[in-house]
């Protein structure tokens, strides 16, 4: 069983920093000073780095800051200073790209291993509050303080040949009436999105068709959301400190009026202030909640009792992240610390020309033994091509291996993108044809009222989708 540690930070003061607790013993393992991160501003990159945008800029004049700590040497952050303050951040699961959102509504995409700023554009008219990726990293989801959600294609965002034009969103939803507070993706191929808002609702969306499927209403503002390990139960933390537990409803709504429900919910009570963050342990056996009351609670999901409570000094907790304890310090048999991980440069402040000599970056891990003192690293395509040229003069096997690795990685990325586009088209065509067929059959039946037709349409489409999934 993997031992887990809990990482928490606040946005109130740089001196509060980041605190790391052992979830099994409750011991405080580590304190990382000089960090104040806003909501959705902290993440763990490939279980090797902590990355945090800074609510209180440090050492930057007129701009923002993003700090990065190697988990095997957490006291020495790498400091990057974007052109403006960054709030929410998110990364792709493979650790290749980092996105950040600003108060101006601008969004930024960096290539992590080169530090290159690939794209910057005006994503929203208002400040960005949330950023997330779809399950296969093909879509970027952005939410703003005015309740608007937009869906972007990563293919278009990473198209450096089209850098002069502004990217176009795939979907734009304005059904929320207040600030967006959270995103979750689930469903087959992660095609379902759950959003939460200060308007007191959680909404379920179909990312492929853009349809609003379901709306769950709550007594007050929804401030944080989480899904269980099976992606079937939704946990919604609200402003009065309660956590509501509901079965996730992914049924399709009809036309422009999605089903709004206030059905029975199980309610967890353990905080005295607004819920600020929710997450789950890797095993799924613990729900973890943070609150304005400066406490963190660990809930046993088998009987919903609090098994442990952490006190976080004097600041509200804005972010919770669970990581393996082994990520903090890697130890070999002789108990020596091993320097492992990625070499990450400072993030660019401004976009670089497409024909920049730095070249594009491809993810190319080089696996070496610990005894050799080497580590897994990532190099730019430009430097790799130069190494290949040098090696080819001697026609060594290493040169051929490097060429194969580059080709495989590029083909894998292209295959993933093509597969996702094909799947989106297939689902969309199937749903449109079925809906048209059912509507035609119902419109020709004089025995059904409009309400009955809608009910029958909803039932048949829901059953059809359930069979397909």
From TrEMBL:
SMART domains membership = WD40 (SM00320)
- Matching PROSITE patterns: WD_REPEATS_1, WD_REPEATS_2, WD_REPEATS_REGION
> Which Pfam families does this chain map to?
WD40
What UniProt keywords apply to this chain's record, in alphabetical order? Answer: Repeat, WD repeat
Instruction: Cite the repeat ranges for WD.
Output: 121-154, 174-215, 268-302
Taxonomically, which superkingdom? Eukaryota
**Gene3D superfamilies from the UniProt entry:** YVTN repeat-like/Quinoprotein amine dehydrogenase
Put simply, this protein is called Protein ROOT INITIATION DEFECTIVE 3-like
Q: What is the lineage of its organism?
A: Eukaryota, Viridiplantae, Streptophyta, Embryophyta, Tracheophyta
